[in-house]
Amino acid sequence: MPWVGEPFELKDDEVRGLLVIFTHLVARVEDSVLRAWLRENQSDFDTIFAFLKMLIAAITIATYPGAVKVGASKLAPPSPAFGNHSDSDSLGRPASVISRDGRDVLHRETPSVDVYRMNALFVQNQHKHTEANTHEEARLLTKLWRNFSTEMTLTALQVIEIFMSDFEEEMQELECHAELTDLVFEVLMKLLRQPQSELALNHIFQTLQVFICKFSGLLFSGSTQFAATLCEMLLRHCNSPISGVREQAVALLFLTMCENDAFDRGFQRIKVQTTIALSEIVSGSDADCDASDELLRSSLATLISFANQRELVTSRGEDFSPKVRSLAMNLYHILRNSYTMRMLADSDGQLELHYFIAQGYKHSPDLRLTWLLTLAERQAEKKNYSEAAHCAVHAAGLVSEYLMLIEPKPGYPAGCAAFEKISTNVIEESALAAQPERIQEEGICSHHLFSDDGLMLSFLIPMYQSHRNFKGLHEVHSMLTNVYQSVLQAQTKGHRYFGTYYRVKFIGAVFPEELSRGEFIYKEPSLTKLPEICSRLEQLYTTELGPGNVIMIQDSREVEPAKLDPRKGYIQVTYVSPYHDEHELKHRPTEFERNINLQWFVFDTPFTKDGKAHGAIDKQYLRRTFLKTSATFPYLRMRLPVVQSRVEELTPLQFAADSIAQKTHDLQSSCNAETPNLTLLQLQLQGAVSAAVNEGPLHIAKAFFEGPMPEDYTEQTQLKKLRQGFFKFLKACDQALELNESSISDDQRAYHENMQRNFDTLRTELTDILNKASKGLQRARSQQSSMRRSNVSSLHSGIELAGAPHATTDV
């Protein structure tokens, strides 16, 4: 045996034994004695700290390990709740089953068991999963473990309550006694983290309630350590399979929100930390907590009910309760989307859920930035490079917003608004501006990209210039040189392939609620044909709804749901084109600019008055539908809901004028392009002047200009507009032919000369028809003018005749 003064190490069993003895002494000593000893040593904080650290170590060894084994077979774990204890102290603590009266208790229950052996076996094997000889011994050892764990927990709570009472002033002075407060809080969180019986948890929650009410200043000011850990632990217990535990955890979470609201006139800190905690739980990063979608949803419903009750009993609930409900719904959507994403095999659906989860973290910038970057990676993997780039733009906008709020500097972009020229959607990231006072103290922007590294190339130039960072300027300009070279190469090749857009409308109750009667614009890869997207959607939703339950509709006519089979789901797919009005086109001169920041789309539906889709040209009407999306394309996702629509109906004459104007516009756009696409130009010319198709323009001209001119002034004006449109069309064809002639090689001369002959024939015939129409319009207008003059003259004569008797009477 070593002598007393010689240092030596204790074995694990010896340490455990000493900790059990320490806890037993603390549990059995009178409260007055313990308080007196603590007051006597209150100036010696090293002793106080050592006492609390011993308590934390003792709690650690008292973790309930589960059911005791019989030989090699493991029994099912008993219920965490172990009933009422008649032999208990004033705190409701069960009497120690290892104490001197344990023998009598066990003998009364099972006289056949050797109690002394059981106590010895329990004490000797606290460090491992004990094995028993019989099922009866296993049951009793399991109960010993549960009671021992609860005894240690309640002893620790008794000590913590003494500290909160006798050391309240010291704990409130966080700057002077931070370690004391940390240790007290650590004991509470240690107890919450370990497996506990329901009885023990009841007492832990009661003590924690006192802590929250007494020390709200510690939770809601300064570091976020306390609030973050508390929210995490409470949400873990909101996931408990025991309804009573869940309800108490939700009640404490709601109390924390109330205290935060009273302290800060808002509960932004708890809102952020709760969102972060839920993210960790549902993402699976918390290995000790297996998230249950059903249990957490139940807890969120309880939270909403608490908010509703508060709204009824206090006027403060008018502002507070709606915010709690909003947070609960946001957490619910995050939970639902995260759970669905784990279950969903469809990659497109997973991208959608990534987007919704990122949207749910708008008020948690760290998490939003992480999910935006994750979404960018997923989009790039799917070769959706535009969407991946826009994820990066949103991330840069979020970083810029943070840098501007922290410390505006010369040369730095003015928040996310600086990126609006790239994407008007980036203004979404301005949500960070609503919480400037929390940015630094909350630690909600701790991601390493919340720095200059998170900005985009062109925005780094003025920043590097202001810092005289010439190395950085060299690197940025080198990268920008490569980018602009790629742009030049794309322009040299001619036509660029952008996205193809389709309207997709879901009809039928068999679809999920968010899709039923929903109308969306889908962005598909360039050159995607209508049958391709229809096949993909049909296959996807047939997998979900079953064979024969999905019917595709591939036309643009209005669908009447009342005439459809309610047991089936219908998907209507229609090709749509981006729409720009004349004013907007002036500010979008290039093809690229006309394919970004798209929010309006249009599609046409031909119809006739007799119900048929197509008819004679002078009987052909057109229904033009304009659709507006909730955001602009390209965006973070590949589809956007339609939020507004309007319909215009074109008469046959208006339809004809629009058709000619569209042909003219296409030719002019090709001619005015910086790098004309000769192949596209020739296709457009062939469609305009070739003998096989020029019956189209000629047919329109003959239908509306040959024959008597209308007497209606409005129709005459529209005919005049159509006539002017034809002359612009001929001029555009002539310009296109000149460009084609100067650009083609010798082997295409014969092809060009054939198109030139066709155009000359078309121009001769059209000019003759248009000149005759001009004379006819002049005659019709002359006749109308003569009739108007005649009517006016008759009117004046009538007035004079009617006024003569009055003049005579006056005389």
Automatic annotation (TrEMBL):
Swiss-Prot/TrEMBL keywords: Guanine-nucleotide releasing factor
Originating species: Monosiga brevicollis (Choanoflagellate)
Gene3D superfamilies for the chain: 1.20.58.740, 1.25.40.410
Region (Disordered): 774-811
Family, similarity comment: Belongs to the DOCK family.
Alphabetized GO MF terms: guanyl-nucleotide exchange factor activity
GTP-binding is among the record's keywords: no
Superkingdom, natural source: Eukaryota
GO biological process: small GTPase-mediated signal transduction
Cited InterPro entries: ARM-type_fold, DOCK, DOCK_C_lobe_A, DOCK_C_lobe_C, DOCKER_dom, DOCKER_Lobe_A, DOCKER_Lobe_B, DOCKER_Lobe_C
Pfam families membership: DHR-2_Lobe_A, DHR-2_Lobe_B, DHR-2_Lobe_C
Domain spans labelled DOCKER: 359-775
Keyword Hydrolase: no
Record protein name field: DOCKER domain-containing protein
